[in-house]
Amino acid sequence: MTSHGYVDSSYICIPELQPRHSFGHGDLIEQSQSSGSGSGFKLLVQNTIAKQVQMVKQIGKGRYGDVWMGRWNGDCVAVKVFTTESCWMRESWLRETKIYQTVLIRHENILVFIAADIKDTSLCTQLYLITDYHENGSLYDYLKSTTLDTESLLRLAFSSVSGLCHLHTTIFGTLCKPAIAHRDLKSENILVKKNGTCCIADLGLAITSDKNEVDIPPNIRVGTKRYMAPEVLDESLNRNDFQSYIMADMYNFGLILWEMMRRCVSGGIVEEYQLPYHDQVPRDPSYEDMREVVCIKRQRPAFANRWSSDECLRQMGRLMMESWAHNSVSRLTSPRIKKRLAKISELLGIKL
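User: That's the sequence. What structure does it adopt?
Assistant: Structure tokens below.
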């Protein structure tokens, strides 16, 4: 196996996704017939890699199903297992697989996709999404157990925004990559690699700027309530302007910077890890809880006093606040943040 290339195997093409009210094995096979137009995306023929992966231990659980660490051809892989209990789970698997197959999406700060497959069990049909495995886990887990110095903070932040910048960027040429909006960016959906850099993961809610390729579900309020941008919470987001989705991602990134900065030691002081708005909303906030704090009161997580005395934290704090501005058009874009983080690193003599 090579972890940085697609698996060599027999492939079939899946045409454009069509919404269904129910799902069975036959439905997926029906969706797996090539239209002959070349517009489909590639999926491993069923009963290939799924039978070869040895599940070792469960490492996570999400709304779609479970995540396992497995072994395949002697290497560790991560296996996200979707069940077919609902149409939503099936479509999330199809969507994420399709996004990972987008032309030119591969980037060192985007989670490496290996394969997707279907496995029948005696109880149900399971949908596998197989990717690189990162033993440090999510940024959320990493920050809970790890304190940062200035260099590690900048490395985490710069690599995260580099991945986001690649998603957000349209690449023109013979092979074109559309812009992609994540729509559920949070510390739990960013993974930390062995070298202390990050990669963006969990693209099950992502959409592309080519709306003929990936449909936009009718519900604007998708994602994690705690991280939802003001325009998502009050449903004022302009669905007809793709840039609106991009700028909602930038609000999320501002909150992630806040999470990182709390864990960076300065003057011998560091805050314990907390989720954004931990002291302003309940543990499991409702839409109304978040809307009142974010939209009506226009509150944001607190800026720690000590950050003003540290040059790196002070400058990153400015980026953070410009990212989560209430008005989406006032927020910094991912290329702008990437450029400014590179400048901060250069001024501090830190090589990223």
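The radius of gyration is 20 Å.
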